[in-house]
Amino acid sequence: MSDISYANKLKTQLYWWLGRNRPFVLNDEYKIELLFLDKVNNSAKIQITNLKSGEVITQQVESNDTK
């Protein structure tokens, strides 16, 4: 699987359909991966990896989207 690089292209905002098999690489420094989607609590568990240091941060994020 090849990751699409948006290095030095992301200036303001970008929409990305994040999926388990479709991570997002930000400026060739961070990889954001979807680990789990909780439809009951309207939240997602993501993992952010610093590609330069290898440090991994796992974060649970709740959506405030009221659509």
Structure in words:
It is a single chain. The protein is mainly beta and 67 residues long. The protein has a domain at 24-62. The protein is 0% helix and 40% strand. The chain is built from no helices and four strands. It has a four-stranded antiparallel beta sheet, with no helix packed on it.
* Major beta sheet summary: 4 strands, antiparallel
Shape: globular
Helical/strand content category: mainly beta
Enumerate the spans where pLDDT stays under 50 for 5 or more consecutive residues: none
Separation of termini?
A: 33 Å
* Strand-residue proportion: 35-45%
How many β-strand runs?
A: 4
Share of helix, binned = under 10%
Number of helices: 0
- What average pLDDT do the residues reach? 79
How large, in whole angstroms, is the Cα Rg? 13 Å
| Order of secondary-structure elements | EEEE
Which sequence of strands runs across the widest sheet? 1-2-3-4
Notable traits:
four-stranded antiparallel β-sheet, single chain, 40% strand
List the helices and strands and how they pair.
Layout: E1 24-26, E2 30-38, E3 43-50, E4 56-62
Antiparallel strand pairs: 1-2, 2-3, 3-4
How do you describe this structure in short?
The chain is built from no helices and four strands. It is an all-beta fold.
